[in-house]
Amino acid sequence: MKDAIAICCGGGPAPGMNTVIGSVAKMFLRKGYRVIGLHGGYSGLFTKEPEMIDIDFQFADNIFNRGGSALRMSRFKPSDEDFQERFNLNLFKENNIRLLVTVGGDDTASTANRIAKFIEDKGYDLKNIHVPKTIDNDLPLPDYTPTFGYQSAKEAGVAICNTVYEDARTSGNWFIVSAMGRSAGHLAAGIGGACHYPMIVIPEMFNKTEITIKKIVNLVISAMVKRRLLGISYGAAIVSEGVFHALSEEEIKNSGINFSYDDHGHPELGKVSKAHIFNEMIENELKKTRLKVKSRPVEVGYEIRCVRPIGYDLVYCSLLGIGVWELYEQGASSCMVYVDASGKASPLYLKNLQGPDGKIPPRLVDIEGHGATTLIKNNLHFIEPADYEAAKEYVDNPEELDFYKILNW
């Protein structure tokens, strides 16, 4: 029986998933291996009847430049009970699977290591190599290397947000855009910076103060007032969803927004449009001012996860896929594949990335770095002390809208 590898994809999609799958498959097929694709992420390993396909060259060649994922994904995370009662070890034995290739974020990587250790304890030799992905760009890869999918998602977001800004100019309105990014503001910062949005709000900006609804709202209204002082009646602000997830439950409950709550009494934030919430909060505060502004919400999230990868990610993901073979040939296991700027693949071991709690800390936007400070200082519009007197035409207390005071910078 041929040696085989299995590929499974966890978490949410990112542009380049198929490029990784196709490139891994082509390499191992070329070396004489059987390549098995597992549907349903890790759930396929915890059932007696996994849904799987044999990947041949034709299949791999057909998918490599497509968006989405030809292998259906899942956020399934196995419990201790799943391992003890439902793990399908026979899947590996009967198909002679020697390598498990996983594609996903840090949770997917941690589970892959757990599976490899579990199988090893059962006396079966299995290697696992992980390909890290997220459009959030928040995995701590060396030398600020982007996570695959980020550049393509950002490009798609820029296309949407440039059109939104054109609508703002045409209609004389304001648009409040929410961008994905639960822990870090890379997408919002990247898209907003590329589109020259007059206000960008990301969690990293609140490095010296607590994030509150009032501060988020005041940053956007600060831009609205400043633009009016410049004779500009339109604009757009982009807010990272991460600022919302960083709010305390008390802040959320006092927001005036109606949420559904889970069994533990926590607001179910994943079920609501952040753009709609941000817009509603801003509109409520605008009623207290003398600004006559119409604002509209726009969500940028699911629309950019499955776009066709741009050239950058097509090359990058091809190198990652080839890198899986190179690491496997070297005997590496329980690691993530990393490709540096020269195209060289090397292993990254989770133990070197994890914090004291065993989790990989997110890579945040370097808010004090030269790039961020330059864009904030020169591209954003906001109230400063020199604007206080003129701003009184629109608000009673302009000092509350002072960008640097809001952030305690």
Description of the structure:
By secondary structure, the chain is an alpha/beta fold. The protein is 39% helix and 14% strand. A seven-stranded mixed β-sheet has the order 3-2-1-4-5-10-11, sandwiched between helices. A four-stranded parallel β-sheet has the order 7-8-6-9, sandwiched between helices. α1 packs antiparallel against α2, α1 runs parallel beside α12 and α6 packs across α7. The N and C termini lie far apart (65 Å).
Strand content: 5-15%
Count of DSSP H/I helices: 15
Secondary-structure element series: EHEEHHHEHEHEHEHEHHHEHEEHHH
**Number of β-strand runs:** 11
Which sheet architecture does the biggest sheet show?
7 strands, mixed
Determine the fraction of residues in helical runs and give it as a percent range. 25-40%
Structural class given helices, strands, pairing?
alpha/beta
Distance between the termini: 65 Å
CATH homologous superfamily descriptor of the largest domain: Phosphofructokinase domain
CATH architecture of the largest domain: 3-Layer(aba) Sandwich
Contiguous low-pLDDT stretches (5 residues minimum) are none
What is the CATH C-level name of the largest domain? Alpha Beta
CATH topology of the largest domain: Rossmann fold
- Average per-residue pLDDT, rounded, comes to 92
Strand order of the largest sheet: 3-2-1-4-5-10-11
Give the CA-based shape: elongated
Rg of Cα set: 24 Å
- Domain count: 2
